[in-house]
Amino acid sequence: MTVASGAVLDGRYELGEILGRGAMGRVFRAHDTRLGRDVAVKVLDEALAGDQEFLARFQREARAAASLSHPGVVGVFDRGEQDGAHYIVMELVDGPTLGDVLRAEGPLDPERVLALGAAMADALGAAHRIGLVHRDVKPSNVLVSPDGHVKVTDFGIARGASDLTLTTTHSVLGSVPYVAPEQVRGQPATPASDVYALGCLLYALVTGEPPFRAEAAVSVLHQHISQEPQPPSMRRGDVPEEFDRVLLALLAKDPSDRPADGDRAAARLRDAGSSVATQVLPVVPTEALERTRALRTTAYPGAAPTQVLGAEEDEDEDEDEDEDDLTIRWGRRVAVMILLAFALVAVALFGERMAGDQAPTQGSSPQPAAPSDDPLEPAPQPTAPPSPASISDVVDGIEELLTRGRGASMSRDAAKELSEKLKKVVQEYDEGDWAEARSKVDELREALEEFAEEDEVSEERERELAEAVESLARLVEQAASAA
What we know:
Elements lengths: L7 E2 L3 E9 L3 E8 L4 E8 L1 H4 L2 H15 L9 E7 L2 E7 L6 H8 L4 H20 L2 E2 L8 E3 L5 E3 L6 E2 L4 H5 L11 H4 L6 H17 L9 H10 L14 H10 L11 H12 L12 H8 L38 H19 L40 H15 L6 H20 L2 H20 L5 H24 L1
Antiparallel strand pairs: 1-2, 2-3, 3-4, 4-6, 5-6, 7-10, 8-9
Helix pairs in contact: 3-11, 4-7, 4-10, 7-9, 9-10, 13-14, 13-16, 14-15, 15-16
C-alpha cells in the first residue's frame, strides 16, 4: 500500500501534509477522528517494510517510546499496520527545534542552558532507567513546546541496553558533532554516550557551535577521540567557571569519567545551576518564541528537518529555515562505505586495522563527509557529491552548502531565494508532479546561474551547488521514469 496525504489509516487517522522524512520513513500531520485531536504519524518506507530487521527496529521504536512517560519526552500513542504499511502515532509538537532557536536567538545564557540541560537529562534519565539509550541526541531531536519547554524526540534509533541482536547488524553511529568517542570506535552506545552527546549539545547552546569542528567529518570524529574540548569560557567571556567544570565532565573521553546516566547528569547540572535548578526555564521567553516559531510552524517527531513542508518564514527574519542534522542514515550500501572510511581513519591515526564487526555498519549518509544541513555541524570537504541514496541526501547537501556559504561565499538574499526554490522542488517531488518538479529544478538552476553572474555566489560555491543541483535533477528523472 502506498500511503499519501488524504489516506485514512485504520479508519481513524486522516493524513494531512507531509511534515518530513525520517531515517525510516515519512511523517504526516494527521487527525485522529476517534479522539478528535491532531497527531503526527510516522509511516515506514515501503522498501524497508519488507526487511524483517528494519521492521523489527521500527516496531521496537514504537514499543520503547510508548513505554516512556515523561513530560520531557514526545509521547507515542499507537502503532499499527494496514495493507503492509506500518506506522506509529505520536504527539504532535507545534514548535521549533533547539537548532531553530539558536538561529533565531543566538547563544543562550549559561544559567538557562544549565536549566535546559537538566530538563533534557531528566528526559534521558527516564529512558535510561528502563534500559533505553537514545543514541542520537542533537539540536534537531529536541523540540520546543508552545510553552517554551523542551521535549526530547526521535527515539527511533534507540535500543534496549541489553539488546544485541539488531545492533550487531544495524548499528547506528549517530550525528558527527554529537557522537561519543566510544561510538566512533565502534563500541556499543551506553547511557554515558547520551551524556556525552548532551554535553556537545549544551556546548553548542552556550557558544553557538559544538566543541569540535573541521572541514571534513572524519576530522571531527578524530577530535572526539583524541582532542580535549576547549572550555566554553575561552569562547565566551561570561561563562562561569562552574559551567566549564560540569560541561567538561560531561565531555570526558572515558565514559567512566562522565556522569553514568541522565539522572546523574541532571543532578550535576542542577548543582551547577544553583538558584535556577528549582525550575525548568522556558528555552526562550514567550514573545521570543513566537518569532522563533515562524521558522517552523510545524514540528514533528523523527522527521528529517530539511523536508518540512508548509512552514512559513517570517519575512522580517534574516535567518533561513536551515536545519540540524547530519544523521548517519540507513542502508547496507552506505554501511559498507562507512566501514571502509573508518577503517582508513583508524589505520592513519592509530596504526591499527579496524575489524569489520567492530566498526559502525549501518545508518550513515553516503560517506562520512556527506553534506549536512545543520549550521552547528561540521562542513564537509567541497567535493563533488556521490550518487545519493535518496532525494533527502541531496537536499540535505544543498541546504548545507547554502547554510555554510551564507554571508561568506554567498549573499544572504541569494541563499534565501535558492533555499525557497529548493523547497518548491521537494514539494513537487513529494506530490509526484514530475513535470512541475523538473520545472522547479530548472528554476533553481537558472537562479543559481544568475546569482553567480551577479557575483552574489562565489565561483567555488557555485560549482559545488551546480553539481548538487544536477544530482537533484537526476533523482527527479529517475523517480519520473519509475512512476
